[in-house]
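so i finally got all the pieces together for this one. its two components total, 460 residues if u count the protein bits. some of the lines might not be protein, just check the labels. i wanna see the whole assembly predicted at once instead of chain by chain like last time, that was a mess tbh
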Amino acid sequence: MRFSLLVIVFFIIISGISFAHDHPTYFNDEGEFTEEQPSLVALTFYWFWGIHDRIHWIVIILMLYTCYHFRYVSGKRIFTHPKMCAYNDKGEYLGESKLHYYHRYFWYANVFLIGIHWSEAITGWIFGLQYTYKFTFQELGIFLEALYLITFTLWLLSCHFFRYFTGGDNPCLSCSRGGWRTKIFQKESKFNQYHGIFMWSAIISMILLLLVAGHL
Amino acid sequence: MKTITLRIFRYNPEVDSKPRFENYDVPFEPKMRVLNAIRYIQENIDGTLTFRWNCGAGRCGSCSMEVNGFPSLTCKYEITEEMKEITVEPMKAFPVIKDLLTDVSSMLQTAREIPPFSPQDSEEEFWKIMPEDVEVTKEFRKCIECYLCQDTCHVIRNHKMNYIGPRWVAKVASLDKHPMDSANRSEFLNKRGIWLCNVTRCCQEVCPEHIKITENAIIPEKERIVTEHSPITALKRKIFGETK
């Protein structure tokens, strides 16, 4: 409860910062720069965009931190806790924190954000409009953007929570008409086996994309 | 004749002040298992060596011990020609009764604590359960209760925390996934420290029946608890009433 309150407060603060700093620049009918109060629709749109810009990386990092595969890798391989199976480790126990409860909410947020990115990218590819990222090498950038979108989407779709959502929560898979739920759950279970590969590919492609775009 | 040396843990609490290791030379035979070597020692060298075994075929789960520091079923652990010395110890997560024999009675106590199978009220004479629903729980019913997963789990083995352990989470998952069950075991698992598991997957690495304990039992059960506490479920309960 306390954590949820903190998250809400955090989002309110971020929203405030976004609202205060992300003034859109406007041009009047004569093409002259103006700082007049924009319309409510434009203001809402920009306000949302400002939040999106700022929370995007936080949401990705939180989803990564609470990801089951990342927990496995960080616990066993990075922090060596334990060093190996059946190892007589006597150090302090580093269990899971309550933040791990919220994995699904970070997942929801990332699904929303990746939807925005797909729409941005497709619009860019089809209509040649301005890209979100300012690429140093445009072709490489387009390739990496596509790679990032695909791998990130695969990471989301192979998530353990999504697997649970498709059938792990349902003790009667056959109750669905035509057994479609069984088929989806079985396919999702196979897909879930590659969750780790998708996670690393998404992270690597994301870092490469940021490097090429000059953000890192 | 080629021999192999077995370094065996020996401890009799009634006589010994502390445990010790003793070496025994055993003649090597191709396809020999560790259990065969231990039985050879008991039958030909030292009749006081105590250990538990039953079927010798990997079906009963009685001969669980630690071979070269790793939890294993001794009846399935093959001795190869390259091996010169093999260390055999009792399971470290359980108290030692004598030598390689451990006291696993606490597991029976834990089994009794689990909310039992509670069938829904049904007017039908026979339950109709489809094969795909049986398939989901079948995996957990392969468990031979060797307790190797409990032994390798570092939460229990090293940190002695109030965690129910992988074997019993699998048991709960098998009950929860039964189509006719109506009990809610989320609160029980929450109290018995399911969140202490930090998904190292060691339990499924040692499982002789290759049950995917972490993937198919622990993670779905954690997700079930989160669902129980989610605001969406609370809203659903308000609208539709109590559901499993």
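The first strand of chain B starts at residue 3 and ends at 10.
The beta strands of chain B are 3-10, 20-27, 64-67, 70-73, 85-89, 96-98, 101-102.
anyway lmk what u think
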